[in-house]
Amino acid sequence: MDTVGDRRGDNAKALFDELKSLRKGFGLNGSRPIGEFGPLVRRASGVTAADTEWTTRAKIRATFDRLSDCLAELHRTVARAALGFDAPPTVRYTERLMAVATRAPDLDRSERTLKRRCDDALRLLAELALAEQRAEVAARNQGPWHTSILRTRVLLDEPEIEAIETRRIASHVAGLSVIRLSLTVAPPEKGDRGAVGRLRLRMLSGAEVIASRRAAAARVEFDLRLSRVLDAEEEHDIEFMVGVPEMSPYYLCTPAYPCELFDLRIRFGRRRGPSRVQVVDGAFAHEAGDPTVPRATVGLDRAGEVRHVFRDLAPYRSYGLLWA
């Protein structure tokens, strides 16, 4: 069984390792390819798949510039030198550390000691970044539950389009027995108000549908009674299948409550693959289906499938794939 937990020690170590990689050469002053910025550094800096190279660099630099100012004076000085802040863009890592030693007379100037001090400072910086992320998540988790993992498979090469969703929810309250989900079916043709009426939902495990209602022209809500009552901090898996005869060329998740991980796979098949698949990562709902917005793209594999994983989904923002 997959789990998504806090993993604080593992995440802190992984982010620390990514920061050590950033200090090499000219640090953040260098022109390293943005692909060398690790996923945890990107996440801590709020980088999205749609960000340009310039925006990615600016976000990472601004985030760790700000966080370093929260450290004690010695650690702040060493961390900033390690990452290349307050130094000309042509000064390399070891030179930057030695320059710190000349400004801190009480600091041992041996290279081994300086590098150990640098490791200590970057380790604290990693812990600070993760603490800030946890605080942001806690502030969002004010609802009765959130989604730990959402895995969705969309099958477009079947006679009827099918989406199979496996969702692990985490309860924030004692006695959670019913949750509400909603699905929006955007028809390919504008003005087709009957598309949502042709939606077919079948529970596969973990819950039963006790009520459904049309909440808007293209959106239907479902009340699901869980197969067991959850206490606070308990997790539970549900799985269901949705079938529709046709749909607009995108599949999006717009959560009402936070979602830690969204793993989306779409199978187009070899014959009907699109020419382009765009990544929608945290867009406003009214912009999510707009193909003219500049976005990152992903390619299909040899089987005509595409996959993208999203993390830390914010409420009422849209995440998914758009194709043409």
Structure description:
The chain has 324 residues and is of the alpha+beta class. The chain is built from 7 helices and 13 strands. The strands form 3 sheets. The protein has a 6-stranded mixed beta sheet with strand order 4-7-2-1-9-12, with no helix packed on it. Strands 8-13-10-11 form a 4-stranded antiparallel beta sheet. A hairpin with a 2-residue loop joins β5 (207-216) and β6. α4 packs antiparallel against α5. The two termini are 35 Å apart. The model is unreliable at 1-8 (pLDDT under 50).
Quick rundown:
It contains seven helices and 13 strands. The chain has 324 residues and is an alpha+beta fold.
Topology at a glance:
Layout: H1 8-22, H2 39-44, H3 53-68, H4 73-83, H5 93-103, H6 111-140, E1 145-155, E2 161-171, E3 176-184, E4 200-205, E5 207-216, E6 219-230, E7 235-244, E8 250-253, E9 259-267, E10 277-284, H7 285-288, E11 297-298, E12 305-313, E13 317-323
Parallel strand pairs: 1-9
Antiparallel strand pairs: 1-2, 2-7, 3-6, 4-7, 5-6, 8-13, 9-12, 10-11, 10-13
Helix pairs in contact: 1-6, 4-5, 4-6, 5-6
User: SS-based structural class?
Assistant: alpha+beta
| Total beta strands | 13
Mean pLDDT: 84
What is the 3D shape? elongated
Terminal Cα span: 35 Å
Instruction: Provide the gyration radius in Å.
Output: 24 Å
Class of the largest domain, according to the CATH hierarchy?
Mainly Beta
Helix content: 25-40%
Count of the separate structural domains: 2
Secondary-structure element string: HHHHHHEEEEEEEEEEHEEE
Largest sheet: 6 strands, mixed
Side by side, the strands of the main sheet go 4-7-2-1-9-12
